[in-house]
Fold each of these.
Amino acid sequence: MRVAVVGATGAVGSTILGVMRERSFPADEIVPFASERSAGRTIDYGDRDLTVQALTDESIRGFDLALFSAGSGTSEIWGPKFADAGAVVVDNSSYWRMFDHVPLVVAEVNPEALDAHQGIVANPNCTTMQMVVALKPILDRAGIERLVVSTYQAVSGTGQRAVEELHAQAAAVVEAQELPPASIYPHQIAFNVLPQVERFKDGDDYTTEERKVMAETRKILGQDDIRISATCARVPVYTGHSESVNVETRDDLSPEECRELLASAPGVVVVDDPADGLYPLAIDVEGRDDVLVGRIRRDPSHDRCLNLWIVGDNLRKGAATNAVQLAEILHERGLVRVPQTV
Ligand SMILES: NC(=O)c1ccc[n+]([C@@H]2O[C@H](COP(=O)([O-])OP(=O)(O)OC[C@H]3O[C@@H](n4cnc5c(N)ncnc54)[C@H](OP(=O)(O)O)[C@@H]3O)[C@@H](O)[C@H]2O)c1
């Protein structure tokens, strides 16, 4: 199997390569792609060095799979070109996610959606991804009527340059030096909390990130009627998104039952002993593929509402790990070939 990793020099792409190595992904050949700036660079892949290539009509030929994390513009143009050349594309950008013909898939939640792919498969937004892994068992057991979601998102979710911006600002504050101007975020991110993740489209008082969380959750869970309200904030954390999720179930579900349910759910680890100071922390999830859930408790204002605290590594389960899991499932099920349309 020949696999292309597009955006291989970025925060998500380099994590994809790391996860492929860790999981001994069954590729005969892996070709990293990035912008022309990086063409010719070598990437250490353990037993071999990989040379970064630029995207051209010739260089994209002959692949079975292409894992994309190079931004929406690149996915819009080059995703269909890879698919037309015979590869199945697993795309991390937001560009294809809400198209009806594109499955939006989380490995533990709706892998059956892969069966109907037409060449492009979308990997959900990191914030949505970790939340639905924890919500799926609750949906199956008790139904979900409404979600109120508040997020505390790490800067690596914006990419490598945002990590550098936080680092430079934090160092300047600690050294009592003049702060370098904010360029990635609209305000200083070091020692601050920004109630804006991504941008406000004209006339919308929700951000594009908040809209994605609401729409993608419904699509992945296959529940158009779940009522959802999301507020997304950026916090000065390098890696690991934290989320407070208030879940209104259709049927009764006690905190104890919920804890038991989640303890046996795939991809979830319950960390919930607050009296002992045990609850999910962003610094504990970095480098892990599991979604951590804790602070599971009754909402005192509503009989059928529970509160959860959900934490995931945005670069791993929130992006790279799920993309590699989807690639594995596609390969195992013999779905790594673009079905020809008549
Ligand atoms: N970070 C997260 O937690 C996260 C989670 C889920 C999804 N995503 C999505 O994944 C994508 C990448 O995010 P990231 O955080 O990894 O960003 P990043 O660190 O800025 O990396 C971007 C990558 O795309 C490449 N690239 C940029 N322009 C290109 C072009 N015209 N042609 C080919 N390659 C190009 C870059 O190559 P150079 O190094 O040569 O510039 C780099 O490899 C985005 O769509 C993002 O929304 C990110």
Amino acid sequence: MCNLGHDHHANAFGFLVDAPEIRALISETRRLSREVTDTAARVEALKPAFGVLLAADNWLPDAFARPDDSSKMGGGIGQYALYRAEDGSLCLFSLVIPVGAETPVHDHLAWGIVGIYRGRQDETVYRRLDDGRDAGRAKLEVAKRQTLARGEFYPLLPPVDDIHYVKTTSDTPSVSIHLLANDTACVWRHRFEPASGIVTPFRSGYANAPCPDAAAG
Ligand SMILES: [Fe+2]
């Protein structure tokens, strides 16, 4: 059910939050995607524009910055689409993780950039030791851990460092902003259980927009 006071179907794509700061970042991402073919160089070139959005106040509505009790990720974690390209090539979303909650261990399957807008998170990144041949199993070990405070951000450049989980360590919910070159919450990704090695298909879903094959009716 929608509790954001708008029609899901009319607003499922494009600028779900129409703010000049968001339009500026999407425009710059489009420009760099045309002009910079190397993914790592493109993400590096995106950092200044992403930093501007992270540093700006008053563009994120409260409805996109609160926990979601119906979360498919569990733990009250809210994932809210701010911008979605209809062709699935780009999205911007907020991720709200309540105090003490953590995401499952998951992958992203697209390049992007992620930054902290409010609160603080601990991130644990895994490296994969097996060859990925068995779709249901993965052998993982911790590659690095880092603490991320407001204004800090990191690139996503799969397959390197693409598997991680994050946990809120501030005494208020953390809000992170994610720009990724797919429709992240609607693509089938993976969740991992590092101790047992079990991998399961995972689609997190947005709290405020349906995924394409769930949008009919
Ligand atoms: Fe993630």
